[in-house]
Fold:
Amino acid sequence: MMRSAAYIFLFFGRFILFPVYFLSGFYPRRQDLWVYGSWGGYRFADNSAAFFLYCQQEIGNNIKLVWISRDRTIVRSLRKNGYCAYWIWSPGGMLACLQAKVHLFDCFSKDTNFWLSRGANKICLWSGVPLKVFERDIDNTRSRYYRLFHGSLPERWLLGMMMPWHIDKPDLIIATSAENGAITKRAFGLPEGRVVITGFPRNDILLVKNRSITSIGAKLPDSFINAVEADGKTFLYLPTFRDSGKEYMGINWEQLDLLMSKVGAKLFFKTHPMDRLKNDVHLDNVIQLPQTTDVYNLLPNVDVLISDYSSVIFDYMLLARPIIYYMPDLESFLSENRSLLFHPEEIAVGPICSGFEALLQTIEEVALHQPEINSSRREQTMQRLFAHVDSNSSQRVLRSIDSRFYAGSLLVR
Structure:
């Protein structure tokens, strides 16, 4: 009942907000003001956060850089660290979004403020190299996103009203390779020239030479720092989001905790930001991280990644470290969620585990022995999906924005 009332309120609110969106296109926009957002405004993470911090150093003296968030805790934290940040519907936040010439976001223009973005240059930094189909390529007829792009006319109209940022095409979007760029162009329905091959800013931290846990620059959990500074291996489990909303892990956390104790290791895990399943785990050797955690600050000091259909498996390949693929629901994932652009067996550089017992055995083997990585498959996948393997992705993104929207006047090095 409460949810139905909320949807009704949001629907009728569109009749006010769409005129606001239209009128925002007439407001004069400042060339020296950029706004950033991430994951609907609820996180400070991923490519937006990495690029925001990079731009502070490179153009912060000439361009006012503002972070927009729906989470007041994020706003307070950024301000405490000397950055400009506003709550999305505060006077300062609305004015910044209305005046900014450039809106930068990880996913969609609602990450900043879609309703105040018409007339701005919208730059999508996207959320990863896709293993799953997304946007216009989604082929699950039960998905609302499929119906948004391929449903009946009434369905497309209604869902377009409720989720207009999905049909609002960015002026520029980044990708990691030509193949990744072609997938992105098709999924977003973009014309030629709007996809640039730069690499992802969030991956720069993975490829910086001589890094240490004290050089990351972000506040890391004390439990993670302690684990890294100990002698044992550090595992990180990052499952992706399931459209079906069904339970998928099949993990006995207590048994996993005992194994970690046995091999002298620690396992950290974090569910996807959109995942609504509850897994409240409080154990000594298995530590659950908040969904808002930016795992890219952790990855440089992770010894072994465990994941499934998440794009993080591609990013972690840059480190040439072991990856365990835990996929107990592959068949149901394909039948109830989305198709895959790459079959796991095609791109896996480590063992694929289809059940919990196999996962336990594989973790023990990896923890106690030096595992082999399928180097030939890793090389093939890297060639397909990463045109650049260095720590200069943020620089390339900034140069692309400079040349595309500022005619080189930002004087990017």
Summary: Residues 215 and 360 are 33 Å apart (CA to CA). The first strand starts at residue 30 and ends at 37.
